[in-house]
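Please produce the structure of this protein holding [4Cu:2S] cluster.
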Amino acid sequence: MKKSILATLCVFVAAGLALAVLATSCGPQGKGGASADLRALMSARNLSEADVSAALKTYTPTGGKDEFYLFASGGHGGNLIVIGVPSMRILKYVGVFTPEPWQGYGFDEETREIMREGSPPGLSLTWGDMHHPALSETNGDYDGEFIFVNDKANARIAVVSLRDFATKQIVMSDLIQGDHGGTFVTPNTEYVIETAQFPAPLGGGYAPLSDYDDKYRGAQIFWKFDRARGRLVPEESWAIELPPYMQDLADSGKLVSEGFIFCNSFNTERAHGGIQQGNPALESGASQNDMDYLHVFDLRKAEAVVRRGGTTTIAGMRVITLPTLIEEGLLHFVPEPKSPHGVDVAPNGNDICVAGKLDTHVTVYDFAKIKALIEQKRYDGVDAYGVPILPFREAIRGQVEIGLGPLHTQFDDRGFAYTSVFIESKVARWSLADLALLEKTAVHYNIGHLCAAEGDALHPKGKYLIAMDKWSIDRFNDVGPLLPQNFQLIDISGDQMQVLYDLPIPLGEPHYAQMIAADKIKTIDMYTPVGTNPVTGQPHANAVVQESDARIERRADGVHVYMTLIRSHLTPDVIEVRKGDRVHMHVTSLEQARDATHGFAIDKYNLNLSVEPGKTCDAVFVADRSGVFPFYCTEFCSALHLEMAGYLLVKP
Ligand code: CUK
Ligand code: CUA
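Below is the modeled complex.
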């Protein structure tokens, strides 16, 4: 054991990473940098010293914990991915927009209700296109309590509690159709921001495309968050009407810019397709102008307008209309080059970074200058809807020439910014102080977002960055035509960035992720007291907290089964009903041992529950087929797990 530790240290020395003091302990073995055994292993596996040094930076022995949690969107898989950094071990998929049977998510009544509430009336959507997770913040730093995620496809926002890593709420407003710019929080999480991408008549009505300029609109919703309840409050939320450009990502101001919201846009051309009608495709139609508009929105002044009732209600949502926004001086535009993607406010709060997909620069706006221009009403005209435009040159601090296809920017603790360069497949590191490009590191194909540790918070942690690469061609063993995405872990602590590890993501396209220090996450071990409803956190009305109370009751609305689970039996274990009965399962786990989870599945009734220690949940189904249907526990919970089973008998 001792020998292998010494050998390991020697490899560090070989890679030029160890402290000099360690070198003395390497003895004769240290001459070549590694022991003969390690050398043999390296050559057998064809590893360079750089490989070994990378391995040592990520390898986490059994029982070792990670320094950070990475929360990555699961893209069109609809679920959230939790990963430990630097080990890059996947810790959990959290069911959000898509049912997740092993969590009972979308199968028990409590979570089915979450999915129904977040769906159009009469429908229960079973997937989403998650793009941007946003951790809750306190004073501009992640606090580890909640994470919010959007569903681009259906214009929804979900709330996930980080106490139990479970979804608590999905909200949907009929105001907009499809959101891309979500989610972003204000520095104390008063609001969760959701922005429409596709202009459409607000509130969901019909209008022909020939009315695009007049009837189609963009919008940005400010969902009010009640932290004590852990819920978004639709009645206290409101929105702003925007011109029918494609509003993209947003960011909250911080420090000097706190109280302002920045949102980039593209397609200020207002192209809307119609290839067969002789119009340009959206991709070229939306790429004509050299400049689009950075939206600068005064949130504090807008709140005053909302308070005094200066809103119009559309689809149940209070909306500040575009004429009111202009009249009250709440919205200003600043030109931004060309079809940009994303806006990121630097930790100093004053530098606002925008990268143009079709421009080679990151443009750094100077908030102090923007504010002065607004105060002096120094306008370069107005847009087609009357929104005042500030002069570009007077609003910026400068531009950094980055390369082809710069997209998103993150920050570290040393004053560096990191921008993903999509077309070049690189990560660029540049200095905020002098706006100078320092270094570019090749990553795998088609990097989209990148994520540094707390890299969009007030106090970034540095150390690690994840390159979120969209193509993984040639990188992993072949799995057919649909390949995983690739997360590359990059060490950013040194003078040179170093790619350490490739993690295939086989769940959906994770657009964005956030990384938080692990010590900020405080989870519960189990649901207490026994009989807790995990969604509300309150005692469940249908809980049965001792086995002797387990029972079957026939009532007007069907058969109610009050069931308890404890190693290794289900009580009752025989359920007799008549064909056509509605069966209401009320299932409680009496376990109070950590991780002693039971499942509950009924054969051929499309039902699987996950019953963690202390949890109660309901499931309702109609016993519409007669026969004998075994039910059983789906978690291997004990030596007699296979015996944890029973029968549902449905009499003809
Ligand atoms: S987006 Cu996918 S790479 Cu939805 Cu934030 Cu930029
Ligand atoms: Cu309980 Cu297996």
